[in-house]
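hi! just following up on the protien thing from before. the input was this:
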Amino acid sequence: MKASSNQSPMQRSLSLLTAALAFTLSACSMLKPDDARPQPQPGAPILAPALPDKGDPEARFSAAMALWQRNDIAEAEAALKALTDDFPEFSGPWTNLGILYAKSNRRALAVAALSRAATLNAKNDVAFNWLGILNREAGDLERARLAYQKALDANPDSALAHYNLAILLDAHLKQPQAALPHYAAYQQLSGTDDLKVLAWVAEIKATTPPEQTPEPVQT
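and the predicted 3d structure came back as:
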């Protein structure tokens, strides 16, 4: 815990993430194209009756997000759950459903949904970021570190992943020097001078010999 802030490590991470990540996914960026679905071969027997039209998944995803933005949380959750039932191959609904579960303290459901999202889309930095949060809250710091690193592997420009990894390294793993480049990357990528982060960085540098200060992360 740093004397320069009254926030706990958990408060540090969640103060930014809960507001910022809820609507970061777009239907277009996270839904697989229609041609990713297996197509029947000519002459293949029909083993089941045709399913009714399930509608446009992108339109349904947008409608679910609109419900969330209106704070109709139960309706948004039901809409996202229906999407995961009808289109289980799409990463976006699983991610946002996992976020809803996480924000309502249903950890097991959140981990399952976010893990499914990350499996479906290895570039889903938002899902990995939330898995990092959940693992950190559960005390599994190494899994949290790996999840944050996977978020950065998927998207090196994720300011929030840099922020959360810095918090983990600094306040939890007691590796403040390793946290410095991630604090710097967060400040650069977010385009803001976060006074709390500036204070934490100053405190680390005050107790770190200059030759041991790591180089900034290249973004």
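The radius of gyration is 20 Å.
The CA atoms of residues 160 and 186 lie 7 Å apart.
cheers
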